């Protein structure tokens, strides 16, 4: 019996060994869809399929999978200025021939800058999966074998050509999915560009070319759009300035050649503020730019989300720093400079810091009030612009008189409780701090309309944002305005560089009175444009009455004289403001230019008429109170070379005068995402949508645009 048990046990062991041997032999001869990755040198290359097995006549996706070494990249179907895309060739021993293979499904690429501004490539890094369709022969039996030679150029700082022989075996007889590979291939097929659900045109009459994209509902606000060509008709490294319209968008493309033969083909990649990228295949016919696909400048790259607010705030700080150099602010800053000299002369660093902090507080409080006013106006009317305070006659009248009174003070006509000879005592008093505070308030009031470069687009990008964003950016602009004096107050080594007070300060104080009078004159000119000549005349009379009150107070006398002096000062300030509130002014418009300019008033209707005629158009959105506008007029727009260029090229010159409130102009500024004037629009001949020009013009820029026609 024991021998029988032993024999049975040995028999089971022999049977198990035979079964395992048979199974191993069977598995060795059964085809498998799994293939080994091949090390090409700087990339692991592999063929994968979405199926474990196939049926005769099936069509499925297989893919060339490439895992690249860190820092290396390969190329898109159009490599750009340099490079070659991956290719595959069918090798001997393959049961799948060329005619059974389809083209690569190319996922959308990204930019590969080689030499900034000079050489740009398109491609991929980290991993690339290139799916392509495979059709199983109808007479396939047993298994199908695909052997390919992958040939690709892989680059880091240098480029190296590599090859890899890859293969894939698929058993015939079933249609089992490969879950892992099928999911991966599906993800990369989804990265391929879609068909564009819209129309595309390329306008090549002048450089840069205009790629106009029209689609229902337009594009998502703040989207970034880039065109990737299939060929080499455009400059690959050139920027592609973008503008939006209600029905689409327009890209400006720099041509690589002077002409385009046929259509412009490629893909557009639309990246939204959350980082999602979607591609669309387009074939742009030559023709005019579609209406309502341009005119609203794209926001800066930092215009969305948290980064957006940080970026806008940084731009506002830079713009605030530049405000210190604007002509409307310089006269007020002369008072601040004298205050700093007084503060340093005390010898107490704490007093110097106090002076800087009070000045900064005045600036920030004023910009906060300005932001609050803009938010309130926006909520009430739907739109708001910088400079609105200078469109109000009473405000301009009061500012004019304040500048005039400050000028009288600087001349020594009266004192505000301080004296140059008693700087230490005055600094220690409350009036010293309040003086610094109100200097900051005044600098902010007169500086805000001088938005200058760096600020027009940044503020235009934030005026329609939530109230918190508006407040943050305006406070950042105020901080930039106050920053030089804040640094001067807190860095002892810098403040000690200021000269010591002396009699020279009295002379310099008196000298600074004259810029204040000139500022008052400029404001008086603005008042005449806003409220009419009668308001300007009454403001001059008010200034005279204030001067009389000051003179009367200085002569001394009893209570009657002091009362009369107070009445004169208050009446001289109040009555002009009341008069300015009730006065009206005829539109000034073209009067800002010489008659020989032959300008005309801007209106959307006139733009439509002129564009229908095919004339080039230059539009100046301006205001009397805008210092940057007046600078551009003096240096560029009123210059003889620009005038002659306009005349020689039949340019229609339109003026949109925003000195006074104008809801149509305000709406146009909002549509173009500008916070205020200046704004300059250029319509090339035949164009229906404009280019938005920089806020600082030059003769070379304007003449270049005109003569390019």
Structural class: alpha+beta
Mean of the pLDDT scores? 81
Question: What's the main sheet like?
Answer: 9 strands, mixed
Number of strands: 24
- Tell me the radius of gyration: 37 Å
Approximate strand percentage: 15-25%
Helix content: 40-55%
Uncertain ranges: 1-9, 15-33, 300-307, 417-431
Helix count, per DSSP? 19
How would you sum up the global shape?
Answer: elongated
End-to-end separation in angstroms reads: 112 Å
What does this 3D model show about the protein?
With 709 residues, this protein is of the alpha+beta class. 43% of the residues lie in helices and 21% in strands. A hairpin with a 7-residue loop joins strand 23 (679-683) and strand 24. It starts with a helix and ends with a helix.
Name its key features:
single chain, five-stranded mixed sheet, 19 helices, 24 strands, disordered N terminus
What is the fold's blueprint, element by element?
Elements: H1 2-29, E1 38-39, E2 43-49, E3 59-68, E4 73-80, E5 87-90, E6 110-115, E7 119-125, E8 127-135, E9 143-155, E10 159-171, H2 179-189, E11 194-195, E12 199-203, E13 209-214, E14 224-229, E15 242-245, E16 248-253, E17 264-271, E18 277-286, E19 296-297, H3 305-323, H4 330-345, H5 349-381, H6 393-410, H7 423-428, H8 430-447, H9 456-462, H10 467-490, H11 492-495, H12 503-531, H13 533-554, H14 559-582, E20 600-601, H15 604-613, E21 617-622, H16 627-637, H17 640-648, E22 652-657, H18 663-671, E23 679-683, E24 691-692, H19 699-707
Helix pairs in contact: 3-10, 4-5, 4-8, 4-12, 5-8, 5-10, 6-12, 6-13, 6-14, 12-13, 13-14, 17-19
């Amino acid at each position: 019996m024991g021998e029988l048990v032993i024999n049975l046990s040995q028999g089971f062991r022999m049977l198990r060994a035979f079964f395992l041997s048979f199974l191993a032999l069977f598995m060795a001869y059964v085809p498998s869809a799994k293939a080994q990755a091949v090390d090409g040198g700087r990339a692991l290359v592999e063929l994968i399929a979405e199926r474990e097995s196939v049926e005769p006549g099936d069509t499925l996706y297989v893919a060339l999978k490439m895992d690249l070494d860190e820092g290396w990249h390969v190329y898109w179907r159009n490599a750009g200025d340099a490079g070659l895309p991956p290719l595959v060739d069918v090798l001997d021993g393959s049961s799948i021939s060329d005619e059974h293979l389809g083209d690569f499904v190319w996922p959308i690429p990204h930019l590969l800058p080689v030499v900034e501004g000079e050489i740009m490539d398109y491609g991929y890094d980290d991993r690339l999966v290139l799916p392509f369709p495979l059709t199983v022969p109808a007479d396939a039996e047993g298994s199908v074998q695909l052997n390919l030679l992958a040939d690709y150029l892989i680059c880091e700082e240098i480029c190296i050509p590599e090859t890899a022989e890859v293969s894939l075996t698929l058993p015939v007889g079933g249609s089992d999915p490969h879950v892992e590979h099928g999911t991966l291939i599906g993800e990369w097929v989804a990265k391929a560009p879609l068909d564009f659900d819209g129309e595309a045109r390329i306008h090549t009459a002048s450089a840069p070319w205009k790629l106009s994209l029209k689609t229902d509902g337009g594009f998502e606000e703040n989207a970034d759009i880039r065109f990737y060509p299939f060929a080499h008709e455009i400059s690959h490294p050139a920027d592609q300035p973008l503008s939006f319209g209600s029905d689409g968008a327009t890209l400006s493309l720099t041509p690589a050649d002077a002409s385009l033969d046929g259509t412009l083909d490629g893909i557009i990649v639309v990246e939204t503020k959350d980082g999602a990228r979607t591609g669309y295949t387009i074939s742009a016919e030559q023709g005019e730019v579609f209406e309502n696909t341009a005119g609203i400048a794209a926001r800066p790259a930092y215009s969305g989300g948290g980064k957006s607010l940080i970026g806008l705030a940084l731009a506002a700080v830079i713009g605030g720093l530049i405000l210190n150099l604007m002509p409307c602010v310089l006269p007020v800053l002369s008072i601040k400079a004298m205050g700093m000299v007084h503060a340093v002369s005390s010898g107490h660093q704490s007093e110097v810091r106090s002076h800087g902090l009070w000045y900064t507080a005045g600036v920030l409080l004023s910009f906060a009030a300005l932001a609050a006013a803009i938010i309130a106006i926006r909520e009430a009317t739907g739109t708001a612009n910088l400079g609105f305070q200078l469109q109000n006659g009473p405000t301009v009248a009061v500012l004019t008189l304040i500048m005039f009174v400050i000028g009288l003070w600087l001349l020594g006509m009266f004192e505000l409780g301080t004296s140059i000879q008693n700087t230490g005592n005055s600094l220690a008093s409350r009036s010293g701090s309040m003086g610094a505070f109100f200097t900051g308030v005044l600098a902010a009031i007169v500086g805000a309309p001088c938005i200058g470069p760096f600020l027009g687009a940044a503020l235009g990008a934030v005026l329609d944002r939530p109230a918190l964003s508006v407040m943050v950016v305006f406070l950042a602009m105020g901080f930039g305005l106050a920053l030089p004096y804040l640094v001067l107050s807190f860095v002892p080594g810098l403040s000690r560089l200021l000269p010591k007070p002396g009699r020279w300060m009295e002379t310099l104080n008196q000298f600074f009175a004259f810029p204040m009078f000139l500022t008052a004159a400029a404001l008086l000119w603005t008042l005449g444009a806003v409220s009419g000549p009668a308001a300007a005349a009454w403001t001059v009379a008010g200034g005279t009455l204030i001067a009389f009150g000051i003179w009367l107070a200085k002569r001394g006398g009893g209570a009657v004289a002091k009362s009369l002096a107070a009445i004169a000062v208050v009446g001289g300030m109040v009555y002009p403001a009341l008069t300015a509130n009730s006065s009206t002014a005829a539109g000034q418009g073209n009067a800002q230019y010489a008659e020989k300019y032959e300008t005309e008033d801007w209106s959307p209707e006139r733009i439509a008429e002129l564009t229908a005629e095919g004339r080039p158009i230059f539009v100046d959105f301006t205001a009397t109170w805008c210092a940057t506008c007046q600078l551009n007029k003096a240096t560029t727009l009123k210059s003889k070379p620009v005038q002659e260029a306009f005349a020689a090229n039949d340019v229609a010159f339109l003026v949109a005068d925003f000195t006074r409130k104008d809801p149509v102009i305000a709406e146009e500024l909002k549509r173009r995402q500008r916070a205020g004037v200046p704004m300059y629009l250029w319509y090339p001949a035949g164009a229906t949508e404009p280019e938005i020009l920089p806020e600082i013009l030059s003769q070379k820029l304007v003449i270049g645009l005109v003569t390019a026609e």
